[in-house]
Amino acid sequence: MASQPTSARCFDLQTFRVQGVFQYCVVAGGWQQDTHVKPAAETSEVRGVSQVFAHPAFSQETPFDSDFALLQLDRPVPETSCIGPACLPSDDFEGVGSMCEITGWGMQQSGGDMPSILQQAVVTTVAHDRCEANYAKANRTVTNSMICAAGTSGGGVVDACQGDSGGPLVCLHRDRFVVVGVTSWGLGCGDAHYPGVYSRVTAGLDWIRDVLAGRLRSPDRGRPEVDFKGHMWAVVAGPCGIDQDGCIHSSGFPSQYQSLEKCRIAVNVSAALPIRVQSFATEGPYDHLEVNCVPYSGRQGPQGIVPNADIFWLSDGTLQDTGWKLCPDTPRLI
Predict the structure, then answer these.
(1) The whole model's pTM is what?
(2) Dist. CA 3–CA 131, nearest whole Å
(3) Backbone angles phi, psi at 314, to 5 degrees
(4) Looking at residue 177, what is its pLDDT?
(5) pLDDT band, residue 8 (cuts 50/70/90)
(6) How far apart are CA 43 and CA 60, in angstroms?
(7) What is the structure's pLDDT at 202?
(8) How far is Cα 327 from Cα 249, in angstroms, rounded to an integer?
(9) Average pLDDT over residues 118-133
(10) Spatial distance between the Cα atoms of 229 and 310, rounded to a whole number of angstroms
């Protein structure tokens, strides 16, 4: 099973479960964060998320404890010069004093701006009792499912910050990178008294193995059965429509769509054809149609794209336009 570890706090699992909104995407090999720019095809691979597994011990009533989630990807990700796996640690891996690396697009100081380019920093894991004692002075609890790390650079403190949650803490161990932690929480950013706190992967190894082996089922209901009625797609949520020719369109097309619209169009992947854009006019870059995890807006539609996952349409609360109409590019008979 192709999967990706992250933080359970990064997901509204109730919304995911009730609404069946499978619009999460994972970009492997990505280094620039911009929701209005397509991922660089030469370095990255984009995958949809088919299921989310949250650690059963995670609870908002016990903040940050067992803060793990696993994302099941809809397709495997190939290894390339820009994409490679990090290994799970052994059960007895301690790693105290290990030099490790953190990555993310989080703030570079508390309350500051978030960078568009992926950031990387070196930190060292801290003894559990020392970290626990420091946080106890602030009436915070560091449990056995957590590991702490911090670093220094140019006289300053190196730390994760807001927006880095769910990212990896990886350490080089015996010539291979090992996922030791998942960025979780801390007090402020870059405070020498309070190192960053990460979910300790060894604390969740049994659960991770059970998920990877298929011995556990996700609490979400999975993708519901869809009656495509002979079409390559079907509108399963929201006010978007489909006509007798099997073309999908925004609500009210060719008149204006409404504010705050959300649509989900399920795709019959086995019958998918390239998309023929008949019309496309949205308020760019805010009102966008997401196809294969890539947002399209303004006057640029997904012409010629073969959808391999559900399609999503979202409009904001301000300006509207005439919307869009997409048809299957059915081969012509000669």
Answers:
(1) 0.77
(2) 30
(3) -140, 135
(4) 92
(5) low
(6) 37
(7) 95
(8) 9
(9) 94
(10) 16
| The dihedral sign for the CA sequence 9, 10, 16, 18 | positive
Residue 128 and residue 64: Cα distance in Å, rounded? 16
Strand order in the sheet with 3-6: 3-6, 69-73, 45-54, 25-28
Using CA atoms, how far apart are residues 297 and 285, in angstroms rounded to an integer? 5
Residues near 87 by beta carbon (within 8 Å), at least 6 away in sequence? 176, 177, 178, 179
Using DSSP, state whether 122 is helix, strand or coil: strand
Strands 241-242, 233-237: pairing is: unpaired
* Residue 321: both structure tokens together: 């336009």
Report the run of H or E that residue 18 belongs to, with start and end. helix 13-19
Q: Work out the number of other CB atoms within 10 angstroms of the CB of residue 153.
A: 10
Q: Which helix H or strand E contains 16, and what residues bound it?
A: helix 13-19
Domains and CATH numbers, the chain: 99-202 (2.40.10.10), 233-328 (2.60.120.290)
Highest averaged pLDDT of the listed ranges 42-46, 93-97, 222-226 = 93-97
Helix (H, G, I), strand (E, B) or coil at 226: coil
Burial 287-317 (b: 16+ CB within 10 A, else e): bbbbbbbbbbbbebbbeebbbbbbbbbbbee
**Count of alpha carbons within 13 Å of 34, Cβ hemisphere only?**
11
The tens digit of pLDDT for each residue in 197-256 reads 999 999 999 999 999 998 887 665 556 688 898 899 999 999 999 999 999 999 999 999
Please work out, in degrees rounded to the nearest 5, the angle formed at the alpha carbon of residue 131 by the alpha carbons of 130 and 132.
90
Interatomic CA distance for residues 82 and 40, integer angstroms: 11
**How many angstroms separate the first and last alpha carbons of the chain?**
43
- How many Cα atoms occupy the beta-carbon half-sphere of 267 within 13 Å? 23
